[in-house]
Write a structure and sequence with these properties.
9-stranded antiparallel β-sheet, 9 strands, metal-binding, globular, 9% helix, Jelly Rolls
């Protein structure tokens, strides 16, 4: 058995290392959400939501996904809108209602919601506010074109 383990170890030592920064299409990234400033919350066209974009691509540093945290005060809203890529929400704190194509879905800590691409959806936070993680399979947040229903 020892000889077989030695042979296996030698074979593994000669193997090409996979999933190392040098051979991945994009470099690994770690982001501390507490270090990312809040954006949004100032344009009445989309509501009172604020967000922190944690993982995002750019022309010189492409990514395969976007990840962020949305934050709402009590009763805060993200007005009904659409965008082409599908999106997910994952409840972190508080409660709220996410309405997708007219169907309400409760969001709270631990609840995941899938929003199909092109579906109209909006959010209203509960009395204690709401925080959820959101994500898209898209190269950058800036490439996602939001179409708000009130502007349609």
């Amino acid at each position: 058995m020892t000889a077989e383990l030695t042979t296996l170890a030698a074979d593994l030592g000669d193997a090409e290392q996979l999933h190392q920064p040098s051979n991945l299409p994009h470099a690994p990234l770690a982001v501390d959400a507490a270090q990312v400033p809040l954006a949004g919350g100032t344009d009445p066209a989309y509501g009172e939501v604020r967000w922190r974009t944690l993982i995002n691509g750019s022309d010189d540093a492409p990514r395969d996904m976007v990840l962020g945290i949305a934050e709402f005060g009590p009763g805060g809203r993200l007005l009904p809108h659409r965008h082409d890529p599908a999106e997910f929400y994952f409840g972190l704190e508080g409660t709220g209602m996410v309405t997708i194509d007219g169907i309400p879905h409760e969001i709270r800590p631990g609840v995941a919601i899938y929003v199909p691409g092109g579906a109209e959806h909006g959010t209203v936070a509960g009395r204690d506010g709401l925080r959820f993680a959101y994500g898209f399979a898209a190269p950058s947040f800036e490439q996602i074109q939001y179409r708000f229903s009130a502007q349609a």
